[in-house]
Write a structure and sequence with these properties.
alpha+beta, six-stranded antiparallel β-barrel, 8 helices, 25% helix, 25% strand, globular
Length: 330
């Protein structure tokens, strides 16, 4: 454990969150390491001791992220809008513009333009320090899982998920101290629209809500075909961009799934899982097919209060069985 820095903050009080409007951030490209199998890490005895005795900034300086590889390409971004930036959050979200980027990088053509991106920072200093967890390994895991998910989902970027514009590392000044902290972040497309938890589900009729929920399930199925399980199926992670008219005159909802820091990979295909079920290898309750994942049970994602509002007015389980059972082995 390194010697504690002298800090101008009361013990336990954190410096102001740096991802503020007008902030300029310099960064390097970064290649994330493969994510760990675990999603949450418990503190070691040494970390637990530090959490009792040291300021959160000193703990962060003792546990800088080290995995992955720093690239040679550089860029500078300007924060133009704060989406979510507060203490006790696992990530900080802001809109940014590209001030400059090295030639030959995908973002070079956006330098100096008004085009906005979403920057997502995995900063363990602003995790909830009252929780008994290793915030530093957890933050690195969140970052690595999100990078892996977008990498696996390259072919559906811009249709099922936002476009991904790379992973980066930056050094954040500690205010009033001659030191910096290392923080990882990613850049994605700035998706227009609202998340489902911000919309009034009752303003849509039953048929429209069925179309929206069908699009949610179809999108989640597409993730699985690319070996990614979302891990946090919640209305806040479903963006509704609007509706387009199909060839038969039906309105089709346009969605994007976001937030992959809890994602998993390595899923078997639904066809293989159903074959295992037929051969008696898996009980129906544990079947990882569409109906098994989305039917109404105490443990399903539909038990979230916000999703409940989207499936009122019809028998969800019957609708799910009728609409998805014929496609369960595709």
């Amino acid at each position: 454990m390194s010697a504690p820095q002298s800090l101008p903050y009361p013990h336990g009080h954190k410096p102001g969150i740096p991802y503020a409007l007008g902030k300029v951030i310099a960064a390097h490209t970064h290649t994330a390491a493969p994510p760990p199998d675990r999603r949450t890490f418990w503190p070691t005895k040494q970390l637990y001791k530090e959490m009792k005795e040291l300021h959160p900034v000193n703990i962060c300086l003792n546990h800088e992220p080290t995995s992955g590889t720093i690239g040679s390409s550089k860029l500078r971004i300007l924060v133009t809008f704060v989406i979510k930036s507060r203490d006790c959050e696992m990530t900080q979200l802001v809109k940014v513009r590209i001030l400059n980027a090295d030639e030959g990088t995908p973002l070079a053509s956006f330098a100096g333009s008004s085009h906005e991106f979403v920057a997502k920072f995995y900063d363990p200093l602003y995790y909830d320090f009252s929780l008994n967890m290793d915030y530093f390994q957890t933050a690195e895991g969140h970052y690595a899982r999100e990078v892996r998910a977008y990498t696996n989902l390259t072919s559906v970027q811009g249709s099922i998920v936002p476009h991904f514009y790379g992973s980066y590392t930056t050094s954040i000044d500690v205010p009033e101290c001659s030191t910096k902290r290392t923080v990882r972040f990613i850049l994605t497309e700035c998706v227009p629209g609202n998340s489902l938890n911000m919309l009034d589900a009752r303003s849509y009729d039953v048929k429209t809500r069925q179309q929206i929920m069908s699009a949610v399930i179809d999108s989640e199925r597409e993730l699985r075909r690319h070996d990614i399980g979302h891990g946090d199926n919640h209305p806040r992670n479903v963006m509704l961009l609007g509706f387009t008219e199909s060839d038969n005159g039906q309105l089709q909802p346009q969605l994007r799934l976001i937030d992959f820091n809890h994602s998993s990979h390595g899923y078997l295909s639904e066809k293989k899982l159903i074959a295992d079920l037929v051969n008696g290898h898996r009980p129906l309750e544990k079947l990882h097919c569409t109906i098994g994942r989305w039917k109404w049970t105490h443990y399903s994602p539909l038990h979230e209060e916000d999703f409940v509002r989207w499936i009122e007015g019809w028998n969800w389980n019957d609708w799910l069985a009728n609409d998805y059972k014929p496609r369960a082995v595709t």
